[in-house]
Amino acid sequence: MAALSSPQTFEAYKQAAGVAGNIFAFGLFVSPIPTFRRIIRNKSTEQFSGIPYIYALLNCLICAWYGCPFISYDNLLVTTVNSVGAVFQLSYIIIYITHAEKTKKFKMSALLLAVFGLFAAIAIGSLLVTDLELRHLIIGFLSCATLISMFASPLSVMNVVIQTRSVEFMPFYLSLSTFLMSTAFLLYGLFNFDPFIYVPNGIGTVLGIGQLALYFYYNDKSKQGNREPLIESFA
Question: Within 13 Å and on the Cβ side, how many CA atoms surround 91?
Fold first, then answer.
């Protein structure tokens, strides 16, 4: 029993959970590929919104910054997963801007510059804070807030599923990846005693369970079609 609660065991569990979270997150990062294949094929963004990718990029940048050694202790796996996520989101945004009409192109380009400007201000501002604990708290609360809002964003899609009684716009593997990644980083945060990681991912786990429950409930009632799952703005 003592071995199960030893620091070495906790460290092994934490690393395993972090690696699993990185793997499951990859499923999230590649899930929009069908959307962008269609955009490239049709040379048009149609009616689909690029805002989710802008927000996801900002979230990845802030969370990657939180995982850096000079912000928080022993959270390198948080930096790796969010750095990879930032590369994916930036790639999607570039494709979107390339194929968007003039007004959307200008809007998305302005938002992309705003994200980089905001992140630069956050990064530089945090480094100017000499109190390491205060620096950790500031970036921790920012990363926690952005993560919670990211996990809460599918609530609009869940509402559409309930209203239409169809899971067409809530792909199963996207919901499953969200649940698995959130659960893995919930455990990672618990083993690392880091509330800025386990609190938002705990919320993400609950919401992931809700999405999967809705999927299985309405799946049999959904119309069977061949349309590709696309990310739309239901706001």
Answer: 14
Q: Which of 130, 181, 149 is nearest to 62 (CA)?
A: 149
Identify the residue whose tokens are 């959904």: 222
Q: How far is CA 220 from CA 20, 145, 168, 217, in A?
A: 31, 35, 12, 7
Residue 1 pLDDT > 70: no
- Encoded tokens for 115: 């994200």
CA distance 179 to 201: 9
Mean pLDDT of the chain: 87
d(CA 235, CA 22): 30
Eight-state DSSP code of residue 67: T
Q: What is the pLDDT of residues 8-36, one digit of tens each?
A: 787 889 999 999 999 999 988 998 898 89
